[in-house]
């Protein structure tokens, strides 16, 4: 699954630089996560880095983007290939 940022976000700016896929960006009111780029850090880290640094615990799994670890790994490989091309 991709992750999402809830409206409990306090815009502390710590999650955005931690994302290895550049999936986190400043939205209109709070930070947001592009589910097409989010791999839950699969391929990079053992745990999602945004969740690790979030001081208010406002980054749950996104219920509309259900993906198995294998799917997340495939997405990771595709994103890496896109960087090369």
UniProtKB/TrEMBL annotation:
Keywords tagged on the record: 4Fe-4S, Iron, Iron-sulfur, Metal-binding
Pfam families: Fer4 (PF00037)
Stored InterPro entries: 4Fe4S_Fe-S-bd (IPR017896), 4Fe4S_Fe_S_CS (IPR017900), PSI_iron-sulfur_center (IPR050157), YfhL-like (IPR047927)
Domain 4Fe-4S ferredoxin-type span(s) in chain numbering: 1-29, 31-64
Identification of the protein by name: YfhL family 4Fe-4S dicluster ferredoxin
């Amino acid at each position: 699954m991709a992750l999402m940022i809830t409206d409990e976000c306090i815009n502390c700016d710590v999650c955005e630089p931690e994302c290895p896929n550049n999936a986190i960006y400043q939205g209109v009111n709070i930070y947001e996560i592009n589910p097409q780029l989010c791999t839950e850090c699969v391929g990079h880290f053992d745990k999602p880095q945004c969740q690790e640094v979030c001081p208010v615990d406002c980054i749950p799994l996104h219920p509309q983007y259900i993906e198995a670890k294998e799917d997340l790994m495939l997405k990771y490989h595709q994103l890496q290939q896109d960087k090369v091309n």
